[in-house]
Specification:
single chain, 2 domains, 7 helices, rod-shaped
Length: 143
């Protein structure tokens, strides 16, 4: 990336002054290197630079104010929150009881076996299918 062309580059001046004041500080060295390579720093990096630069007395307060203004102009990015899982649908126990009662007496009833497989796979039973189970229960169990 090309570095932004500007007449007065306050960020570079602050970085140079901080590096000259503390040449052994790796933080300033790495920020200066990244700024020279990329031409910009992230908002978090600039905030860290500002916090450390405030401790150095050789930096004019105008540069610090300009750096703070640059930081305030940058957008703040937030991580999205973890989505809340959808509530688990509770099974209606009535169809399960009807299926168990019918299959206890007629274990080979094909339609009831199909509805049992559907019920066991947590697929919702329609009102028509529930009505069938009630009808089968009335017809088969009252004999």
């Amino acid at each position: 990336m090309d570095k932004r062309k500007s007449d007065v580059d306050v960020i570079e001046k602050v970085l140079d002054t901080c590096y000259r004041a503390r040449p052994d500080a790796l933080f300033f060295m790495s920020l200066l290197h990244q700024y020279e390579e990329r031409g910009s720093l992230s908002k978090k990096q600039l905030e860290g630079l500002l916090a450390k630069a405030r401790k150095i007395e050789e930096i004019p307060s105008g540069w610090l104010a300009t750096l703070e203004a640059v930081i305030l102009k940058m957008p703040t990015r937030f991580k999205s929150t973890i989505p809340v899982p959808a509530p688990v649908v509770e099974k209606d126990e009535r169809p399960g009881q009807l299926i168990a009662n019918i299959l206890a007496k007629y274990p080979q009833h094909k339609r009831v076996l199909f509805l049992k497989a559907k019920y066991d796979n947590n697929e919702p039973l329609s009102a028509l299918e529930t009505g069938e189970l009630e009808k089968f229960s009335k017809l088969l169990l009252k004999q």
